Amino acid sequence: MDIFISRKLSKYLFCIGICFLVTSLAFALGDENRNALLIGVMAISPLVFVLIPVINRKTDVGIFLFMTLTLFCPLLNHPETMRWSTALYGCMFGFYFMALFHLFGFSNLSKQDIARLLKFLLLAYAIVLLIQQICVLTGFPIFNLGNYDLKEPWKLNSLMSEPEHSGRMTSLLMYAYLSITSNEKTEISFVSSWRKDKLVWIAFLWCMLTSLSAGAYLFMLVVLSKFYTKGASFKIVGAIVALYIMLSLFDISAFNRFTKFCVAIFTFDIHKIYSADQSAALRIVPSLICLQQIDLFTVDGWFGRGIDYMSRIMSDYLPGVEKGYTGGGLLLYAVEYGFLSFLVIIRITFKLCYDRNNKTPSILFWFFSVFLVGVNSQLTWATIVLLYMVKCIQKLEKSI
């Protein structure tokens, strides 16, 4: 079968595609903070299937099944709720994922190429955040500003639409970078990694510690879990305790909320979780509410209650939340598109993300940035793409 693109061009297109996926520039933000620039790129991504007309059975079949169920479950079971813009938006992410890995599979990208790309992105996040902080300090207009609250002037978004998303994305990039640059045959320690990539670590920690986002502290721990071994467990616990004491001494409000929120989660009480930190709770509590709506003894339970079902009732469970608010991650997808669709997307995304060489961090990233976020999110698909890319690079290295 003829290929209508060079390997060099496919390499550049893949790298550019990754850059669009892991950033969200303020000028391109549309309704509900949707990245109009990324949407435009996703809209033309199916052209890749014309340039590289092959089928990747490992990814394409599952993604096509997900897209088919996303379109037909609400259309056939609750046609009155069908909103094509919502259903097709999720399908666009599926096409974009396939297009990226068609490019990746045909290109001559090496481990070093990907490492340089990730390093560039990490430094870019830190530099933009530093520029924003200087702007706040000097009173100049803030560069690339998004979702800014004057009450929290130092809570800045860097290269994503909001500070919490920036913390997640920076952590994801750092994890991918560490996984690609480490040697699978030897255990990597934090100290050796610091000595090898001091500049990258400084950039990462600067973003995490100065973002003033409770979510950033959580994902910093997810990245550090990569270094967990039985031999290093005492050192890791010691480092976490030291970090906890240091942050407690500075009385950082975001860290205090993070501590209260972690304690509240283990109660599994929706009201206690919500009162501990409303912002963080809105990323977890909706999933618990959605779970209560799933009934596997009905047709709606298996094929969905229809698009926007949860947005009509969610505010009844969450005081202070305006009518029409929605959330719940993949459990929202289970309610509105059906448990059958949910089982398919769970299997596909977990299989793509799970890394046997990095079990704990890959599972945590999947849970917090895929399961709890949902299918119609840039953050979700950035997580899936980067985690699967790490696995592909590791597999490629073994075959050499």
Averaged pLDDT, please?
A: 86
Strand content: under 5%
Largest sheet: none
Flag low-confidence runs. none
Helix content: 55-70%
Distance, first to last CA: 26 Å
Determine the number of helices (DSSP H or I, runs of at least 4 residues).
21
Structural class label? mainly alpha
Morphology = globular
Radius of gyration: 21 Å
List descriptors.
globular; 400 residues; mainly alpha
Could you explain the architecture of this structure?
Helix content is 66%, strand content 0%. It has 400 residues and is mainly alpha-helical. Among the domains are: 1-109, no CATH class; 111-251, no CATH class. The chain starts with 6 loop residues before the first helix and ends with a helix. The model has no long low-confidence stretch (mean pLDDT 86).
Summarize the structure in short.
With 400 residues, the chain is an all-alpha fold. It has 21 helices and no strands. Among the domains are: 1-109, no CATH class; 111-251, no CATH class.
SSE topology sketch:
Blueprint (H helix, E strand, L loop, with lengths): L6 H15 L14 H9 L2 H5 L8 H18 L6 H23 L4 H28 L24 H19 L8 H7 L1 H13 L3 H11 L8 H17 L3 H13 L4 H7 L1 H4 L3 H8 L6 H5 L5 H5 L15 H9 L1 H15 L5 H13 L6 H22 L1
Helix pairs in contact: 1-5, 2-5, 4-5, 4-19, 5-21, 6-7, 6-9, 7-9, 7-10, 7-21, 8-9, 10-12, 10-20, 12-13, 15-18, 18-19, 19-20, 20-21
